[in-house]
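Supplementary notes for students who missed Thursday's class. We covered one full example, reproduced here. Read the sequence, then the structure, then the short commentary at the end.
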Amino acid sequence: MNDIIPTKELHITIDSLAAQISLPASKSISNRALILDALSYSPYDIENLADCDDTNVLVSALDSNSTTFDIGAAGTTMRFLTAFLSKTVGEWVITGSERMKQRPIKLLVDALNGLGARIEYLENDGYPPLKIVGSALVGGEIHLKGNVSSQYISALMMIAPCMLKGLKIVLEGKIISRPYINMTMQMMDEYGIDVDFLGNVIQIEPQEYQPIPYKVESDWSAASYWYEILSLVGKGGVFLKGLGENSYQGDSKVADLFEQLGVKTSYMEDGVLLSPIGDVTTRMEYDFTDEPDLTQTFAVTCCLKGIPFKFSGLETLKIKETDRIAALINELAKLGYVVYEPAESQLAWDGERCEPASPISIATYHDHRMAMAFAPAAMVTPIVIENPQVVTKSYPGFWGDFEKLSN
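Structure (token representation):
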């Protein structure tokens, strides 16, 4: 267990950046690989598996002889494990942190129960903890709104080949986080499963997984904070090891998007080199439907660089570790920026300023991305990050890497 550190005081002044960073492995890929490894009864160890809270919790659950699992704040693990256990013979209980007990899971539970699972709620209807009686699933056809979390869809997809009738998922309306669905489909293909994803329909016939050796690539979401840092410093460069140009991760889009904010990406044999470019946009507008986890990075960067913005496609942000839209509005106000929600699932800043807090103490809301997205503000003004240990959810070495900048 990590020691609880109540706050971290930060203020870093540098003229030019020169850093080489070994990023953590992708949490999204690691957690999918663990489920696919289990479904294929793989004898191989997964190479470069993420060492973070969400992944470690899933490893522990899959390796456990227990029938009760406390997955803490790990949302991906809650969703993937709920589906996995529903087709695994036995009686299981899965619970989590107080915040996890407030995060809805009814859509996934209803879908699974409709496919032959037996899942019931132990406390509040629609929320964990859950009791699961695992058995063979019949499968069939289900309809889901396309704007539900992609983790629900991925959880269903991965167990679909094990269903007696396979699975047809019809997605209705706008499909969000499509790259994460594509990631699941591409990884299932590597494990020998054919997935048809045409238009708004995902079709998966009954099939058998084939075990393979698997190596996880580095995390593009984690890379975004280094783009932010270089964008704010404006001089020097950063080399990020383990990233490649043809990534399964939707957040690799960060490389293109940060060109608007003054950072160029050069792809090398064993990573990417970030370097500053002179031109920056005077206003940024973007639909983050496919990359919601980048929103905090771009909101903070734009404010600190004085670039008005309007972001849309933020449907899933309110059911993340916290309501990220509300959290960004609250914490950016402490830095002196009047950010608002012009319409549902949008976030905007028109350049309006307010009196900053004194001292500036950034609440992190048990959300790793709040801590990491706001940390670079220390390049501009002294700040305090509350509960900084939340970064262990996805990037345990973040503070060690960040503090290298002042050495």
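Commentary. The chain has two domains: 7-24+218-406, 27-215. The two ends are 28 Å apart (CA to CA). If anything here is unclear, bring it to office hours.
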